[in-house]
Amino acid sequence: MIEIYVFQKRKYRFLFGCLTLLFCVLACRLFYLMVISSEELSERARDVEQRERSIKAARGIIYDRNGVVLADNQPVCTISVIYSQVTEPEKVIKLLSEKLSMDEEEIRRKVEKVSSREKIKSNVPKETADEIREANLSGVKVDEDYRRYYPYGNLASKVLGFTGSDNQGILGLESRYDSVLKGTDGTILTLTDFQGIEIESAAEERVEPVQGDSLYLSLDYTMQSFAQQAAEKVLKEKQAKSVSVILMNPQNGEIYAMVNVPEYDLNEPYELLSVYESGEGSENDKLNNMWRNPLISDSYEPGSTFKIVTATAALEEGKVSLNDTFHCPGYKIVEDRKIRCHKTQGHGTETFKEGVMNSCNPVFMEIGARVGARTMLEYYKKLGLYEKTGVDLPGEAGSIMHKLENIGAVELATMSFGQSIQITPLQLLRAVSAVVNGGTLVTPHFAIRTEDSVTGEITELAYETKTGRVTEQTSETMRSLLEAVVSEGTGKNAQVEGYQVGGKTATSEKLPRGTGKYISSFLGFAPADHPEIMGLVLIDEPVGVYYGGTIAAPVMAEIFQNILPYLDNI
Q1: Closest CA to 484 of 506, 507, 505, 469
Q2: CB–CB of 536/447 below 8 Å?
C-alpha cells in the first residue's frame, strides 16, 4: 500500500512538473509574442490589412549660377481603377475615354480586368485629373505625381538631359546627378479586407515624400542664350550640319555655356527634329544621334588651333624664339611627302611670331621637328591630352594619339599643325586654358554646389587642378602671340572694340579626306593679358566658304560683343 501511495505521489508530481513546464513555455512564448515581437507582428498585420501606393517625390530644382530655374517640376497625376469598387463601369469608361483622350476599348479592357488596381494613365495634367476626381465615380483613383519641366525648352538640351517616366535621370546632368536630384518617394497606405480589396470608406495613412536636393550650375542662362542665338544664326547662314560653342572660365574650369545646335526640346525629347529623320539606322539610333553631345563625346582633328600646343612645347624647351626666321615657299617636303601651307604661294621669309600670326604650316612643321616626337608627347601628357577632362557629364570620349614608336617624320610634321591626331573639343579648351592661365590644368565642370531640400545646407563642390604644366613666362609669351593673331593675323575677324582678344583660327578637313567636308573653328579668350573667359566655335560642314578665320571668328566676335560687357557688370 505504501508503495502504491509513493508511486501515485511521484506520478502527480511529474504531471504537475510537466504542467508547470508547459505553463512556463506558454508564458515565455506569450511574452515573446506580446512584448519582444509585438512591433514585428504589428507590421505583418498591417502588411496584410494595408496596401501601399507610392507617392513620387519631386526632383530637385536645377538652377544656373544666378538662380535662374533651368529644370523644374510640374504637378501631374496617375489615374487607376480598382475592379472590385467600380459600380458604374460604363460611366467610368466613358469619362476616362473622354478626359484622357484614349480609345474606349483600351480603357474597357483595363476597367474590366480583375485585379487589385489597374493603372490607366500616368503624367495626366492636374486640371484634367481634378475633373476626373470631381466626377466622384466609385473605383476611380487619382494619385498625385510630378513630371520634369524645362522652362526654356531646347536651351542647353545636350547638357541638361532629361528624365524618364519614372522620374529617373536618363541623359546629361539629370543622369550624372540623379542621386542628388531624385528625392525620396512617399507612400499612401489604405486598409483592405480579408480578400485584399481596398475598403473605400477607410481613412488613408500617408508618408509624405521628400523632394530631391537642388543643384546649382556654373552655366549662365544669359551667356548660354547669347551663344545659342549666334550658333543658330550661322547654322542657317552657312547651311551647316551643326554648330557648337563652349564658353569656359580658363582660371577654374567653370563652363558658362555649351551649345550644340540643332538642340532638341527637353519637354518632348522623343520628338525627332526634321534634320535627324533622314538619318541612317533605327528610330532609336536617330534619337541617340539627336541627343548626342559632340563636344564631349566626339573626337576630331583640331587643325591649326592645335598649333598653340606645338608653339608652347617649343618655347618651353627653348627650341624657338620670337625672332627666329623661317622660309615658307608654300609647302615643305617631308621624306616623300609634299605638305602644303594654306597659302599655296607661300609666306616667304617670316619670324616665328609672324608664323603664328599667319598660321603657317611649314613654320610649325619645322619647330615640331626641333622639339622631337618624344618631347612633343610629353607635353601632350602635361596638358591633359592623354586623359579625359573629367567633366561631370556622362559619355566623355578620349583622344586618339600616335604611339611613339609609330611616329616618323611625316607623322610628326602633321601632328605639329593638328592633323593625324584626334581630341575632343573640350580637351583642346582645357589644354589651351593651361597654356594661357599660367600653367594650371583645370577640370571643366558644370555643378558648383548643392542645397539640401530639408535643411537648406549648402555644399560647395571642388574639382582637381594640376599646377606647373607651363611656366608663367611661356604663358605670358603665348598670350601675347595669340593676341597678335587677332589684332594683326588670321583672327582679325574676332576683334571686339574696347577689348583685347587673343585666339587662333583653324580649318580642319574631315576624315576620310577628299570628301570636301570641313570643320571651321576659332578658339578665343579675353582679356588677352588675364583671360576670364575662353570660347571655342565649331562649324561642321559649312556650305561655301569654310575658312575658320572667315566664318568662325566673326561668330566668336559676336558672342564676345554681348558677353564681355555682361561679365564686366556681374
Answers
A1: 505
A2: no
Say which DSSP state 183 is in.
-
* Among 167, 141, 189, residue whose Cα is nearest residue 57: 167
Question: Contact, 401 vs 381, CB < 8 A?
Answer: no
pLDDT tens-digit profile of 202-256?
556 778 889 999 999 999 999 999 999 999 999 999 999 999 999 999 999 999 9
pLDDT band at 489 (very low <50, low <70, confident <90, very high): very high
Q: What does the DSSP assignment read for 301-349?
A: --GGGGHHHHHHHHHHTTS--TT-EEEESSEEEETTEEEEPSSTT--EE
Distance between CA atoms of 69 and 301, rounded to whole angstroms? 36
Alpha carbons 243 and 228: distance in angstroms, whole number: 9
**Catalytically active residues, by annotation:** 304
In this predicted model, what pLDDT tens digit does every residue of 454-484 receive, in sequence order? Answer: 999 999 999 999 999 999 999 999 999 999 9
* 451 contacts 216 by C-beta, under 8 angstroms: yes
Task: Tell me whether the CATH fold assigned to 52-183+204-217 matches the one assigned to 221-265+298-568.
Answer: no
What is the CATH T-level fold of the domain 221-265+298-568, as seen in this structure? Beta-lactamase (3.40.710)
Contact 549, 342 (CB under 8 A): no
Residues 52-183+204-217, CATH architecture: Alpha-Beta Complex (3.90)
Per domain, the residue ranges of the chain are 52-183+204-217, 221-265+298-568
With beta carbons less than 8 A apart as the criterion, state whether 259 and 536 touch.
no
CA distance readout (Å), 485 to 130, 300, 356, 500: 64, 23, 7, 11
Predicted structure pTM score: 0.86
Give 547's strand partners.
none
Cell digits of residue 246:
563652349
- Determine the 3-state secondary structure of 281 from DSSP: coil
Count of CB atoms situated within 10 Å of the CB of 195: 7
> Which grid coordinates belong to 84?
472590385
> 355, 361, 363, 366: which is closest to 484 by C-alpha?
355
Task: Report which residue type is found at 478.
Answer: M
Report which residue type is found at 46: R
CA atoms 422, 425, 431, 435: torsion sign: positive
Q: Residue 448 is placed in which grid cell?
A: 558648383
Residue-wise burial string across 460-472, b where 16 or more C-beta atoms lie within 10 A, e elsewhere: eeebeeeeebbee
CB 278 within 8 A of CB 558: no
Closest CA to 280 of 288, 292, 269, 268: 288
Contact 181, 59 (CB under 8 A): yes
- Residue 293 to residues 420, 425, 568: CA-CA distances in angstroms? 23, 11, 30
Query: With the C-alpha atoms ordered 147, 150, 154, 158, is the resulting torsion angle positive or negative?
Result: negative
Spell 231-250 as b/e; 16+ CB within 10 A means b: bbebbeebebbbbbbbbbbb
Per-residue model confidence as pLDDT tens digits over 101-128: 998 889 898 888 887 788 888 888 889 9
Where is 363: in which H helix or E strand? helix 361-371
Which residues, including other chains, have CB under 8 Å from residue 10's CB and lie 6 or more apart? Answer: none
